[in-house]
Amino acid sequence: MTNTSTRLGTFRRRLAARERIVGTFQKTPHATVTELLGMAGLDCVCIDAEHAPFDRAAIDVCVLSARGADLPSLVRVPSPEASHILNALDLGATGVLVPHVASADAAREIVRASRYGKNGRGYSGSTRAAGYSTRTMPQVVATANESVAVILQIEDEPAVERIEEIAAVDGVDALFVGRMDLTVSIGASSPDDPRVLDAVRRICTAAQRHGRCVGMFTPTTAEALRWRADGVSFFLLGSDQQWVLNGARDLANSFNGA
């Protein structure tokens, strides 16, 4: 069973309890970056294999580094294909963030690919997630089905139109608002366009109605806290690239202004 005394073991439960969770995106495919983020007091890291150059080997060492720091790791997979989900979970990721989920049927397929069971996730006892054959099949299956987090990214206008059906799918732990892609999909020029904000609130309302956690990327902490009133409890703020750039810029500005 899951060790409930660790951050890895409690992450899915914390999502369900709507505890405030904050993490960041990792865009740099190097385990040292993950190691540093593990020292920062964050609740999780999201390894971005959709928009950054992570192959399976890079995901492997970054997940390993996160596990060494007891830092829950989510992998934003490149697509909803079952093989991408399997790869991330076999490597020991705490969960998956799946982009561009636009229908209940797609949500059901993602849940099936993330869980052991009939027509579900393929089993191998030789993976990190299975303890490299040191644990029994029943132990591996029970632990994974209890602890793996399935998070669906809602970022397309058709998904908003079907949000009630998507949110109702059993096994979905959270809906994550992809506000920038949603802005583009709606045809707006700003994520603060009233049409975008209305769509985000529809997602929040549907998620809460069906007992799902709501997650969101925001550029600032102040904006994140404003969305708490709409039920958002899971935030991915910034990225390692942004922290490096901001820190270097602050250093340059302070030195040059001295």
Describe this structure in words.
- This protein has a single domain (7-256), classed as TIM Barrel (Alpha-Beta Barrel), CATH 3.20.20.60.
- Helices cover 47% and strands 16% of the residues.
- It has 12 helices and 8 strands.
- It has helices at 7-16, 31-38, 56-68, 82-90, 104-114, 137-147, 157-161, 163-167, 179-186, 194-209, 221-227, 240-256; strands at residues 21-26, 44-48, 73-76, 95-98, 149-154, 174-177, 213-218, 234-239.
- An 8-stranded parallel beta barrel has the order 1-2-3-4-5-6-7-8, surrounded by 8 helices.
- Helix 2 packs parallel to helix 3 (56-68) and helix 4 runs parallel beside helix 5 (104-114).
- It is globular and about 60 Å long.
- The termini are far apart.
Terminus-to-terminus distance: 56 Å
- How confident overall, as mean pLDDT? 95
Fold-level CATH name? TIM Barrel
Give a short account of the largest sheet.
8 strands, parallel, barrel
CATH homology superfamily name = Phosphoenolpyruvate-binding domains
What is the helical fraction, as a range of percent?
40-55%
| SSE series | HEHEHEHEHHEHHEHHEHEH
Low-confidence stretches: none
The beta-strand count equals 8
Question: How large is the radius of gyration?
Answer: 18 Å
Oligomeric state of this protein: single chain
Proportion in β-strands: 15-25%
**What's the CATH architecture?**
Alpha-Beta Barrel
